[in-house]
Amino acid sequence: MNDHADATAERAPVPAAALDAIKQALGSKGWTDDPDIMAPYLMDMRELFPGRAALLARPAGTDEVAALVAICAEHGVAIVPQGGNTGLVGAGVPHAHGGEILVNMGRMNKVRAIDPLNDTITVDAGCVLADIQEAAADADRLFPLSLGAEGSCQIGGNLSTNAGGTGVLHYGNARALVLGLEVVLPDGRLWDGLRGLRKDNTGYDLKQLFIGAEGTLGIITGAVLRLFPKPRRIETALAAIPDPAASIELLARLRAALGDQVTAIELMPRIGFDMALRNVPGTVDPLRGRHDWYVLLEVSATQEGAALRDGLEAVLATALEDGLVEDAVIAETGAQRDQIWFMREAIPLSQKAEGGSIKHDISVPVSRVADFIAEADAACIAAMPGVRPVGFGHVGDGNMHYNLTEPEGADTEAFMAEWERMNRVVHAIVERMGGSISAEHGIGQLKRGELRRYRSKTELSLMHTLKSALDPQGIMNPGKVL
Ligand SMILES: Cc1cc2nc3c(=O)[nH]c(=O)nc-3n(C[C@H](O)[C@H](O)[C@H](O)COP(=O)(O)OP(=O)(O)OC[C@H]3O[C@@H](n4cnc5c(N)ncnc54)[C@H](O)[C@@H]3O)c2cc1C
Description:
The protein has about 475 residues and is an alpha+beta fold. It has 16 helices and 19 strands. A 5-stranded antiparallel β-sheet has the order 5-6-10-8-9. Strands 1-2-4-3 form a 4-stranded mixed β-sheet, sandwiched between helices. Strands 13-14-12-15 form a 4-stranded antiparallel β-sheet, sandwiched between helices. The radius of gyration is 23 Å and the shape is globular. The protein starts with 15 loop residues before the first helix and ends in a 12-residue tail after the last helix.
């Protein structure tokens, strides 16, 4: 499906001396080579990249990570860092040759400190995202990173993929939420950059190197994250709209009326609703009648009072009069709000039941989203008659999950073999519009060939320079990204 042949090349087995030293450094609770226990850690979420590993290491603290990496560096052994294993590009699983150590960070799951007046929380890298959100809420603060996998993904994985999700419109992606990092470097040295500073111009901003690096430059062991005031009021609406362009105009109007109180906007096509209603138990169509497109809108305020809802209602009322909105509902209760969000989350969950799905995670300038969808739909259907495009997602960030579901009755294996050809169709449009072939999921194994195709020689050579400066032996998550 992709050009990753060199990544799966043979590698020498891990020397017994290295395995013995690692086992000793981690103690009996810190490792396993039991195939049954290891199995779920070796397969990626989409089941595209089954792997093998000599050992699953589960370090309990930063010192153990440093000891483990130092042993690997001494013996030239490759390491694959892993968080919650919810990544979608095969970045957090080992290759099939088995000559790597898989390092799962799940035992490092402590909140180290909360400083409410500095609006920061300091955490172990293995903390599950939802647990960090909960710890922030307990301190009457908000940690705004939010995504469908938040119940199992870990902050170390979120930072290593520079995760996006539904809050980017207002709060930025994971990169924007980090003040400090603690990282074990590929030679086993510890870099303690756990500073909670908002201003710090002391040379290169090293933490940014590791954010979005997909574990190829070091293992993140801790982070200082930014917290925000907890919203006192959240209003969530679902609007039926005639076309994707209406969602962009609606966003502009909402922003004009409510400024940065607009915290989420998610676009969904009818075909996505149909798939969700067919395949995901508990989904309910929130509006009567069928409409071609829907948009989920969320606005938040730190003040109590009706002003927020009044503002949202006023924008929707004018949009209805102007034909920009065909119908809309504003959630009256928390349960209704959850129901609306569940429809959004159910769209990706529903696709497996419809057969093969060729996924794209693209971004274009927000002003080009509608053009992108129109052009990509036409081009994909022309290239493969009967294919069912399902473009949905974070429209306010210009980020579409543009998934192609197999034609009804198609042979799934034959359809999936077309992934590369359909990449060319979709990514050519993305490139022409000045967009990105990976908006939030990263490169991993899945998109290495695409990275080479769409990034300039200068960009690629700078990336290789950084990689070889930090990891001259090439032991940190080899065959991912580059
Ligand atoms: C239902 C669902 C919804 C999703 N929605 C979104 C979304 O809206 N936005 C989005 O951006 N993503 C989304 N994702 C993708 C995924 O959840 C994110 O990429 C997430 O950030 C991965 O975190 P993880 O802990 O599972 O990392 P893993 O999958 O375990 O690893 C991902 C990468 O990070 C590296 N890594 C992990 N931990 C460390 C560490 N401590 N130090 C160094 N490297 C490390 C791994 O080597 C790998 O390269 C979704 C996934 C699912 C299944």
